[in-house]
Amino acid sequence: MTSGYFEDIEVGDIQKAGPYSVSKDEIIQVAKQFDPRPFHIDEEAAARSVFKGLSASAAHTFAIFISLTNQLQPPVRALAGLGYDELRLPNAVRPGDQLYLEATTLEKRESKSKLDRGLVRGQFRLHNQKGETVLQCISSGFVARRPDAKASTTT
Questions:
Q1: What pLDDT is stored for residue 154 in this prediction?
Q2: CA–CA gap between residue 29 and residue 113 (Å, rounded)
Q3: How far apart are CA 60 and CA 76, in angstroms?
Q4: What pLDDT score does 3 carry?
Q5: Nearest-CA neighbor of 141 among 84, 68, 101?
Q6: How far apart are alpha carbons 125 and 29 in whole angstroms?
Q7: pLDDT tens digit sequence for 15-32
Q8: Closest CA to 21 of 64, 52, 51, 63
Q9: pLDDT (tens digit, 9 = 90+) per residue, 71-99?
Q10: What is the CB neighbour count within 10 angstroms for residue 121?
């Protein structure tokens, strides 16, 4: 895949992004604003929790995931995301973690009603420096078609 247009994407293509460095201060700051539970904002309370230490909230982890999707290489000419399926957070994100994103194209099809785009479905895996998955999901989205391809299509 070179141009990022729909026509250049192949099933099995892999894109990567990262690292994203997660700090203790960021975990606490984001949690105070969006998910102020003790195990996200207080180290002592977090040590007594099921997490056994400070951990990023699900909202924070998802925000990091979204940020890294915009840095995937090679880039894709994404028009719009359509949703996330099978979203899982199997391991906690901790202060000091380095996060990496890997996306694998699962399927693609041309839009029957919009000639300027195709639909791409992919498996996404966000993992830390130890290789532990911290977020995984399947996502679908519209990807721009090459301008010359739109003119020659009659579907």
A1: 45
A2: 44
A3: 24
A4: 80
A5: 84
A6: 25
A7: 999 999 999 999 999 999
A8: 64
A9: 999 899 999 999 999 999 999 999 999 99
A10: 16
My answer on whether omega of the bond before 19 falls inside 30° of 0, hence cis, is yes
Provide CB contacts within 8 A for 92, sequence distance 6+: 51, 53, 55, 56, 134
Query: Minimal CA–CA distance to 101: which of 130, 83, 128, 139?
Result: 128
Token pair of 115, please? 């000639």
- Cα–Cα distance measured from residue 132 to residue 128, given in angstroms and rounded to the nearest whole number: 6
**Phi and psi dihedrals of 65, rounded to 5?**
-55, -50
Per-residue 3-state assignment (H helix, E strand, C coil) for the chain: CCCCCHHHCCCCCEEEEEEEECCHHHHHHHHHHHCCCHHHHCHHHHHHCCCCCCCCCHHHHHHHHHHHHCCCECCCCEEEEEEEEEEECCCCCCCCCEEEEEEEEEEEEECCCCCCEEEEEEEEEEECCCCCEEEEEEEEEEEECCHHHHHHCCC
The residue to which tokens 């099921």 are assigned? 50
Residue 80 identity (one-letter amino acid): A
Tell me which amino acid residue 113 is. S
Strand pairing category for 133-144 and 117-127: antiparallel
Taking the C-alpha atoms of residue 29 and residue 51, their distance in angstroms, rounded to an integer, is 18
